[in-house]
Specification:
- The protein has one helix and two strands, in the order E-E-H.
- With 52 residues, the protein is of the alpha+beta class.
- Strands 1-2 form a two-stranded antiparallel ribbon.
- The longest helix has 7 residues, at 40-46.
- The radius of gyration is 14 Å and the shape is globular.
């Protein structure tokens, strides 16, 4: 039986525009026009702080 995990090869990437800086980026999901998409740099400022 084949095990399925997170590393199953290349993923389909979809182009999107960052809601903060306007830079074009690619995301591994189909962007929803009703929700913002952020580039890697802007996403860091929108993440909730880690709780240790």
């Amino acid at each position: 039986m084949e095990r399925r995990g997170f590393n199953n090869g290349p993923r389909d990437m979809h182009k999107a525009k960052c809601a903060d800086c306007g830079q074009e980026t690619e995301v591994p999901f189909v962007p929803d026009p009703n929700r913002p998409v952020y580039c890697r740099e802007c996403f860091q400022s929108h993440r909730p702080p880690k709780k240790y």
